[in-house]
Amino acid sequence: MKTLFLVLFLLFQTAPAFAVELTGKVIAIADGDTLTVLSDDQRQIKIRLAEIDTPESGQPYGSRARQALAALAFGKQARIVETDRDRYGRTVGRVYVGGMDVNAELVRQGAAWVYRHYAKDPALFALEDEARAAKRGLWALPEAQQIPPWEWRKAGRQPAPAAPPVALPSPTDAFTCGVKRYCREMTSCTEARFYLNSCGLSRLDGDRDGTPCESLCR
């Protein structure tokens, strides 16, 4: 009996942990480390990028960090490996677009800090050291402005003067005429309207009321 318990204990200790993954299209960028995906089952899920922290909107480089995340992920298919849930109920995870680790790329570009309190991946610290040495992104700012976001929040800093708004690409930029032909191939109402209005795919509006794919555009 003791032998059986020992075997079960060892199996439990060595069993691999299966990460929860989801895939979907990035449809919104809230700030440099938070985005929203439309999942394959049509749910909108807010994602907080794990192990990194980007400057707040009122901080120097805050709007640039948001722009960097938009350039890497907005309008693209992403794979998210969930690592946790935060106190706001958001999914926390590593985000991948194609073969690119978006979390790590933001650090490499100097658009994000490694979040000391939560980071577990030593490779991120190496990327941050590299970006700092090369004076990329926020590391090109004067040293007095290189304040970790968690310290900025803790100090309750007043917002800096508003920066010009970041121009995000239109969601329709990711669509291309001639690729799809039927409602069952559409992933969202926005995509269906693009194919109807921009591509002239009238078959999507069977009753000619101006609304395509009514199962999506209710």
Keywords summarizing the entry:
28% helix; OB fold (Dihydrolipoamide Acetyltransferase, E2P); 6 helices; two-stranded antiparallel ribbon; five-stranded mixed beta barrel; 218 residues
Structural features, described:
This protein has two domains: 136 residues, OB fold (Dihydrolipoamide Acetyltransferase, E2P), CATH 2.40.50; 49 residues, no CATH class. Helix content is 28%, strand content 21%. The chain has six helices and eight strands; from the N terminus they run H-E-E-E-E-H-E-E-E-H-E-H-H-H. The strands form two sheets. It has a five-stranded mixed β-barrel. It has a two-stranded antiparallel ribbon with strand order 4-8. The radius of gyration is 22 Å and the shape is elongated. About 6% of the residues have low confidence.
Question: Gap between N and C termini, in Å?
Answer: 61 Å
- Main β-sheet description: 5 strands, mixed, barrel
Percent helix range: 25-40%
CATH class wording of the largest domain: Mainly Beta
The count of helical stretches stands at 6
CATH architecture title of the largest domain? Beta Barrel
What number is the mean pLDDT?
A: 84
Structural class: alpha+beta
* Shape call: elongated
Poorly predicted runs are 4-17
Order of helical and strand elements: HEEEEHEEEHEHHH
Chain-wise SSE layout:
Elements: H1 2-14, E1 20-31, E2 34-39, E3 44-49, E4 52-53, H2 62-73, E5 77-85, E6 91-97, E7 100-101, H3 102-108, E8 113-114, H4 122-134, H5 149-155, H6 189-197
Parallel strand pairs: 3-6
Antiparallel strand pairs: 1-2, 1-5, 2-3, 4-8, 5-6, 6-7
